[in-house]
Amino acid sequence: MTGLWQALRTVRRQSASAAVVVVTLAVSIAATTIIASLIEFLVHAIPVADPSRLAMVSSTDPRPSQAQSGMSGGVALSGTSVPDLVDWSARSRTIDEFIAFRYDSATLRENGVPERVRVVRTTANLPTAFGFQPAFGRIFRAEEGRAGAPGVVLVTDRFWRRHFDARAGVVGSSLILDGAPHAVAGVLPPALSRGIFTDVDFFVAAPLDAARAARDDRRLFVFGRLRPGATIDQASAELSSIAADLRRRYPATNAQTGAVVRPLLEQLGGNIAAIVGIMAFIAALIVATACANVSNVMLALGAARHRELSIRSALGAGRLEHVRRLMLEAAVLAAAAGALGILLGASGLDAIKRFAGPESRLFGGTAMNLWVLATGVLVSFVLPLAFGLLPALNVSKPNAAELKDGTRTIHPGSRRLRTALTALQVGLTVVLMVQIAIMGRRVLTIGTAPLGFDPERTLAFTLELPESRGLDAERLRSFERQVVAELEALPQVDSASLTSRVPMGDREQIVPVTIDNRPAGTPAEMPATAIVAAGLDFFSTLRVPVDEGRAFTPADAGGGPPAVVVSREAARRFWPGQSAVGRTLTVRAEGWPATPLRVVGVVRDVRPADADGRVGPQVYVPWSWHPERRMRFVVRTTADDPLQLVPAIRARVAMIEPDEPIFDAFSMKQILYQDVASEYVLSIVFTAIALIALAVAAVGVYGLVAHNVTQRTREIGLRLALGAAPAAVIRMVLSDGTRPVLYGGVVGLAVAVALAFATAATFLGNARDPIIYVAVVLMVSFAALAASYMPARRASHIDPVEALRD
Amino acid sequence: MTAPLIKLETVKKVFLTDEVETHALDNINIEIHRGEYVSIAGPSGCGKSTLLSILGLLDTPTDGTYTLNDQAVAKLSLAQRARVRNREVGFIFQSFNLIGDLNVFENVELPLTYRGMRAAERKQRVTAALERVGMAHRAKHLPSQLSGGQQQRVAVARAVCGEPSILLADEPTGNLDSKNGEAVMDLLKELHMSGATICMVTHDARYASHAARTIHLFDGRVVEESVAAV
Description:
A: alpha+beta; B: alpha/beta
C-alpha cells in the first residue's frame, strides 16, 4: 500500500509527463476497442450458436457484377436458385442438410392499413440449424416449410417492440402478409436482430418449389451442415462437380455457374478473414506505436531519476526493488489510461454510429459489449509490461558514478535506446499510414468514378403488385402509365419513369445474347450483357446522355417493333469500330422473347453497384415490352431534398393502388452512398486513427528532442559560448530528431511496400500508386520536422551563462 | 600608447527578476591592453562572474559601452556576438566543461568547426595546441578517462587553438587540488609569456598574485586596482 501511495505521489509530481503517457495510451486503447468492436461484430454477424459444422455454400459466376457475397479467388459468390439448390440437395453426400433463405419484402395489412415490411423467406430448418431459441413461443416445425402448408412467421424482437409495443399475446395471433393469413409462432430474441438480420421484421417459412422457380433466378443465400467426417474442401469439390453437370444439362441458364463451399464467415465476403486479420494487425500497430512512445517518455523520466535511484542503491535497494517501483508507477498510469481509453472508445463508437447513420449494417450493429470491454481491460494490463519493463530495466542499473560530479552531459546508452524507440514509432506509423492510405485511395477511386447519370434531386421507390392479382402485360402497362402521369402531375416533379433495375441500387441481371446474324455457338460462348427494362423517359429522368441515335419514343412503348438502346461499352464490345445504331441483338434467356431487337440509340455507360468502377455492356429494352409486377420508379424533382416528396407520392399512388404501399424510397444520393457506405466510414475511421498515430509519433519525436535538449543544456550553452551561431545549434538539435525519423522511415517504408503488395488483393487496392508512398513520407517528415523545430529553437536561445553556472 | 584591447566605459548591469531589480554592476570603467595579465578579485556576489560574462560577450550591459579590438560590441545581435566570441575570446571554466561524448581532439577542435575552417588546417591547429599543453598523446581519449588536471589542460588547449585576442578564465583552479592548480597556473603563465592576453577571475589570493594587475570589485563597483609587486 505504501508502494502504491508513493507511486501515486511520483506520478502526481511528474504530472505533465504523466498526462502525455495517459493520453497517448488512452487514445490507443480507444482506437483498439473501436476496432475490437468492429471485429467482434463481423465475427458474430452470422448469429449461429454453434458454427462448427456449418459452412457457406454459394453459386459462383466469373462476372463481378453478379457478386452477392463478394469475391473469392477471383470469382463472384453469387446467389443460388431454387432448382440448383434442389439438385444439390438430392445429390450431395458430404452435406447433411441445406439451409436457404432470401431477403424480400411483403405487405402487412392490419386494420385495413397496408405497411411494407422486410422479411426473410427461409427453409423451416434455419432456426434449428442456427440454434435460435425463441424468446416466446416456438420455432418452425419441419412440415411448415412444405408447399401448401399454412403460413407461419417468426417475429423479430425489433419489429415486436416497434409495431406491437412489446405486447404479450402476439404469439398465436394471425397476420395478413401479402393478402394471406400467417400465424405468429414465436418472437425471436434481440441477439438475432443484428449482423445479417439487422433490419429484418419477420422470418417466413417458405417452401422450395423448384417447379415454379426459374433456374437463373439466383437470390438464395445457402448454408450447409457438413456430414460428420466431411471437410469443407471435400464438400466444395463435390458441389463443384455437381455444378459442372448442371452446366451441361442446362446451358441456357447455367453456362457460367459453378459452386463452392467456404467457411461460414465468408458469407460476409470472400476476403473477410483477411480483412479481420488486417484490422487486428492495425490495432496491434497502434498499440505498439503508443507503447514505443510511452517507453520513450518513461526512459526520459527514468534518466532524470538516475541520481535518485543511485542514492537508493547506495542505501541498500536492490535492482528488483527499483524495477518493482517503476512497474508500479507504470501500472498506475496504465490503469488511468485504460479507464479513459474505454470511455473514449465508447464515445468514439457512438459518434461513428451516428455519422454512419442508422441504415449502416456494419456500424449499426457494433457495440461496446463485454468482449470488447475485456479486450480494452486486457490491453490496459498488458501495456505496463510492454512499455514499463524496458525503461525499468534500463534505468535500474546501478551506477555509483552518478553520485560524483562528472563531465558527462548525457547517458549515451539511454539516448541510443530512446532513438531506437522513436525510430520504431516512426516506422510503425509509416506502415500504418500506407495501409490506410491504400484503403482510402480505393474508396476515393470508387467514389469519384463517373456515374453515367445525374443523382441530384432524384429519388427512387418500389411498388410491387401481388401475383395473385393475375395482372396481364396490358394491365401492367396501363397501371404504369397511370402512376407516371400522377407522379408528373405533382408539384416539384420534373419527370418520372420506371425501370427494372435502379442504377447502383440493384444488382444487374445478366443474360446471354446473339448479335446480328452471327452464329450463336454454345451458351457458354454467347456474349452476355446486363439487361434493364426502362420506361419511356428513363434516360431523361436520370439524365443519362444519349451519345448516338435516340432514346425511347412513345412508338417504342406501344408494344410495336421492338427497339433497344445500348451502352457505349456494349456498342464497343459487340460492334467494335462500327456504329451500333441499326444493328440487332436477340436475348437468349429463359422468360425473354427471342425477338431480334433493333438498336436505336447508344447511351453513356452507367456504373453498376459493387463493380469498383468496372463497367460491362448494358442493354435497355422498353419496359412496356417486358413489364414486371415489381416496379422501380425514378422521379426527378426540383426539391433540394427529394425525399420531402415521399408523403405526397405515397398518397398519390395510394389513390391508384390502395392495397400496396410504396416502399424502399431512397434518394439516388443515398443509394450512391450505401454502395460504398461501410468502406467510406471505415476509411474515415482508419484515416483518423492514422492521423492520431502520426500525432503520437510526432509527440514522440518532440519528446525525444526536447529531452535531449534538456539533457544537453550545459553542452549547448558551452557550444554557444564557444561561438556556435544559433542556426548551428538549431541544425544540431534538428538532426537529433531527423535521425530516428530517417532510420524508422526507411525501414517502415520497406515493410509498408511489402505489406501493401501482400494485402492489395484483399482490399482491391493499388499498391503500385507512388503518390501514396510519397504522400506518407512527406507527411511523416513534415510532422517530425515540425515536432523537432520547437525544442531546437528553444535550444538556440539557451542562455550560456545560466547553462554553464556551477 | 596603443589603444586598449578591451575598454569598458560606464558599464552597468541590472537584472530584473519578478519586478525586483538587482544591480550586479555599476559604473564599471576598465581597460585591458594587449599582452596584459589581469585578475578580477572580490568576495562572493560582488559581480565578478557577471563582469566576465560581459567581457566574454555571453551577456550584454544594461548601459555603457564595450569596445573589443576596436569594435563596439555592446549592442551586437545574438549571432554577431557568437561570431565575435568565437574569434576573439577563449574561455577556460572552473568545471572544465568538456563534452563527454567527444574525445580530446574533437573537444579542442570544436570552436574551429564554427569558423568553417578546412579540416587540414583544423587538424594542424589542434595538434599544435595539444602539444603546447602536453596532451597530444591523449587525443583519442574521452574526458572521463582523464584526471581533473588533464581535463583542464585540454580546456586550455581548446581556448588557445583559435588564437583568440583574449583568454578569459573563470576560477580555472576551483575544481583542482593544489598540485594540479599550480600546474594550470604555470601553463597560463607560459601562455602569457608567449604573448597571450589573460583576464582571470579568482578569489584565491595566491593565484591572483600571478597576474600583473588586479581589479578589485565590491558590490558591483571597482573599488581598487592594484599592481603586483615585481
